[in-house]
Fold each of these.
Amino acid sequence: MPDDRADDGSAVPRLELRGVSKQFAGVQALSDIDFRLGRNEIVGLIGDNGAGKSTLIKLVCGYHSPDEGEILFDGAPVPDLTVEKARRLGVAAVYQERALADQQQLWRNIFIGQEIESRFGFLDVRKMRQETHKLMLESMGFTSTAVTPESVVKNFSGGEKQGIAITRALYFDADILILDEPAVGLSIKETDKLLRFIQSIKEAGKAAILIDHNIFHVYEVADRVVVLDRGRIAGRFGPKNRSVIEMTEIMREIAETGKASIPDDPHEEAVENEEVRP
Amino acid sequence: MRDTLSDSASPMLDAATLSGRGVSLWREPKRFVRTYAGQLGITGASLVLWLAFVISAPGTFLRGDIYGAFAATIPLFGIVAMPLTLVVVAGEIDLSFPSTMALGMVGFVLMWEATGNVPAAVATSLVIGAIAGLINGFVIVRIGVPALVATIGTLFFFRGLSLVVMGGRNVTLTALRDTFLFRLFVGEFFGIPMQFLWFLLVTAVTWVVLNRHRYGAAVYVIGDNIQTAELQGIRTKRVRTVLFVLVGVAAAFAGILSSLFIVSFFPSVGEGQLLPALAAVFVGGTSVFGGKGTVWGTFLGAFMIGTINAGIVAAGLTGFYTEFIYGAVIVVSVSIHALVQRRFG
């Protein structure tokens, strides 16, 4: 395995998976995965359907627990990770279909599971509406009077919903954002905005794991790319070292043969060293 | 973060919406109608029904007596309809509560006969209600039996258990007449039946829980999209289990009120309350698919359901019409909700 140290120079990654395996009813979803995420980098996670991408992120979110191996945050293993614990550790997942409760108002969606309370679990609805309104203007870009914190999110566009979910994650100080196919169903214009949104995660000093089928999206925003194939890591690449055509070739090769013929990129060259780019 | 995902670029929201208040009828009448369309619909429908009664039987419906009768009988199922609303909002159902009403009363009667202590009897009944709810919750949430199926089972099971334990025996409760708790539960307060005040209390508490407490927020999200709830860290199993416990306790309480009201305990208490309570919830606009529903809707729904019977008799129609009109009211109300949902939802 190449040294896959975090790109901020610190030896301790923000998030690390060590030798993680997971089975479902006898099917090996992940086997012996080593994965690291630096404090301020965006890692693209790509792979075909069934490669184990979703399983990997569900482990990180505490939704499943690994059969073997350990998950470390800032170098410390967290043996019994739950959804709540993962969230307290800064993980926020942005799932397109499962992020929002469609029939509920915007303000309820921002605060699902982490409502602002006055006392004894009673809600401070007024405060939540105000905060939602601020977020709408400052982060989500809803400036139309047709949309208020009371609006039900069902009729929002895919991009708007995605924006709500990302805004929610950043509002609650998540610094490990997990974006699962965020561009599915978005228009070209909305996708551009989404990619800039993802860039802004990095600019804000946070980290993200981006899952996407589309190599062009990943190429644009990811510092590193990890390719999964049939539950194993099939390759690690720094897209800035390679052209998008080269990356596409590598992807195709992995999909067909299960591994890449070229060796993994050494991490130090791969990330942040723009000057070594050919 | 300057980047945004929306294409809209119309004028800024006004200061009024920044205040964190809800939608005001006076400031934004159109938005108010859109936001509360469902609740306005049911309010309108119940007014229409009431006017129909007034026109067809003014002698009865313009005098107070009949309202006293309504206030005495509607709470007997309305009190269960409240927590049942939460259950349906969460996308579940509970059909077992009529039998829980009886099972709780079995505990009441046995404790009372053994000790003569009425508060202990009440406590026993409520605890049994809670246990019955826990059993439902366990079978549905932990074992994973769909609520419809599980509570059909416990509907028979709890009723059967009551009959077996009592050996079919009825118990006269006349000796309780002079106790404080009897007056507190089914006495009168300035001419208002006490059970009606209890119904108001349960309604108010349910409203607060559903709309102003994190528990209610969780109930809405679970009914809307349980995966979202889980991914956002809501303890869905616990929330769902508690729902059935709430219905169990409310059912036991309604069983006490029903039995004290007629001053005797029959192991058949609660039979006939299943459909009125469910009808109140659905007529009130709560979605059978979960995620949507209001306490106000159920409150009015209970009145609509509870007045039809007396209204039909007072209007001079024979009892044959009861179910006919009953059915018509239910079908029309739920159709209104479906239309409102399509238009404004």
Note: Confidence is low (pLDDT under 50) at residues 1-13 of chain B.
Amino acid sequence: MAGTVAAERLRLNRFGHAYVGLGAVVIALLFYLALAAQITQASYDITRLQDQQRQLVAEQDQLRYQEVTLHAPAQVQQQAAQSGMQRVVPNTYVAGQPVAIDLTAPVGASPTDTTPLWLRAVAMVVNTVGGTRDVLAASKH
Amino acid sequence: MFVVAVILAGTVWSRLAYWQVAQHGRLASAAQAQYREFVELPALRGAIFDRNLTQLVVNTTVYSAFVSPDQVKPDDRDRVATALATALGVDRSKVMKTLASSAKFAYISRRVAKAKADQLRALKLPGVGLQEETQRSYLPGIAGGTTLAANLLGFVDWNGNGNYGLEGKYQKALAGTPGYISSYRDLANREIVLGTHTHQNPANGLDLVTTLDANIQYAAEQALADGVKRDNAESGSVLIMDPATGGIVAWADYPSYNANDFNHTDPALFKDNVVSYVYEPGSVMKVVTLSGAINAGAIAPGTVINDPGVLSVGGYRIYDWDRRNHGNVDFTYVLAHSLNVGAMKAMLAEGHAAFYNNLQAFGLTQPSGVDVAGENCLLPPKADQMSDSQYATASFGQGIDVNMVQMLGAINVVANGGKYAPPHIVERVGTQVNPVVLQPERQAVTAATAAKMTEMMKQVVQHGSGWTSRIRGFELDQAGKTGTSQIPVNGEYTQDVWTSFVGFLPAQHPKFTMLVVIRKPHYPGSDRDWTLNDGYMTAEPIWKTIAQTIIVDWHITPDPQ
């Protein structure tokens, strides 16, 4: 009799084990699902934050361009002009000694042609007889 | 019965084999394409800085607005079109037409600024989206809608490719290498987080640090624009170099363009005349000719020659610019008054072979190699293929073609104690120093020759054609040379000219070398007196204006006399 009761309990315990096993699997599954849901949620958050970051980077780029533009020579000059400032070329740089040349004089005259007249005449004849052609020497000053 | 069964089974099996074996690859990739996504991670393009680390170009984000017409209900079309027209300033009727079409995707407006994009985003219009894109934004230049150093920097097109200038030359370094993310997506096109990922970070582009000075660049552009307008010229360019290193300080072209609006620009303006345009340098070349002859010991600055105003060479009679008999003159006078006969006699005194070697030493027989895209040059024929008359005209800068970088590099030899400094614009790529900077400089002529030529060039400013470039305080301490040459068209010289002026100061310890070239000037009054188109009237005043700015900005003082 006692053996029968024990056997009955054991059978019950076998079902109990099965239930426990099943429960564990269900819990693990739920845990996995919860974890997966959390990860998925996190991934959506990451995507959202990445979007936000992109926006902020775009704003930062825009600000950097504004900053660089503010320092650009064109902008500086424009603002200086608006403030009534202008670039001044200094009249002198060092306490100068008298300049040795007449700076107001135009380009100097050529020296006197000292070629004898007879040589010029010979050259003219030789050039004419030689039949050399004129070439426009186009390199001026 | 059995045979029929075998035939039927065979048909099914062979069909299965066809789909599962023969077509496996195609079907597998088609399936993968539906759930696998490959996203390119663009690399950030490198910035470009000047010598003071002023940023010359900034990456900004712009947005392209698009619609998916099939996702806009007919009832919403009117509202969507009105909102798009208001926010983006586009034609409403065109938007309506697009919305009524059967297209799946259509751009409404490309590359709009963030402010407008934000406005549009806030409206939450159905079927309307924004696509992020990166844009290069360049600094404003002189008035007239140009950007600073546009021709030097070039621009980046909408596909991210650098065009012209530094953007073109350094495309690979600036662009970097894009990365990617490969992942799986669900039906809603959301990433499956637990799926397999492959992730490769992008390698961002490298920054360039140039030798440019933004302030001097701006001053050069401004003076050049004013000068070209005053001279009624077709165009003009300015190139400024650090004599000791060959680093380019300013590189200006006029007319120029707005690199921020390259897609609405005449492509002819993209050409960089500093490095892509060849011209005959005219009398500036006499500096090279006389330096070579002095270096070879064939002449000295004080050597006296007779200049009857004309010389017969190779069957041609070649004249001085003024066709006058100058009598007995020395070579200092020849340079100061730019006499062609004197230059030819110097070339003949040193000989053809030595003259050609001299051209090589000054870097005029090969490209300058400057690190900017699009260098163009017409190299002279080989030494033994040049005729006597070609040698003669080359000695005073006609019949020989150079670009401005080549010419300034050559003149810089004189300013740099006889050493040829390779012209370059980029000093550092990322953290690496540009190898050109580390190259030893080539001794083209002796330091003594360079010193003698410097003295001769000082005389050009003090007593010769360089007088309009004199700067108060530096009158005795600046060196220069003008050049004017006629422009050949179809083998005939026309009345149009290239004019130029090259110079450096302080003469003994130069801080900069500058070359100004003006193309086809028509100076006021030149229809009555064509000499007004000369370099001393057109190019020199521009040189002087820019030099005055550099003197102030760089705190340059004259050498004590």
Note: Chain A has a mean pLDDT of 73.
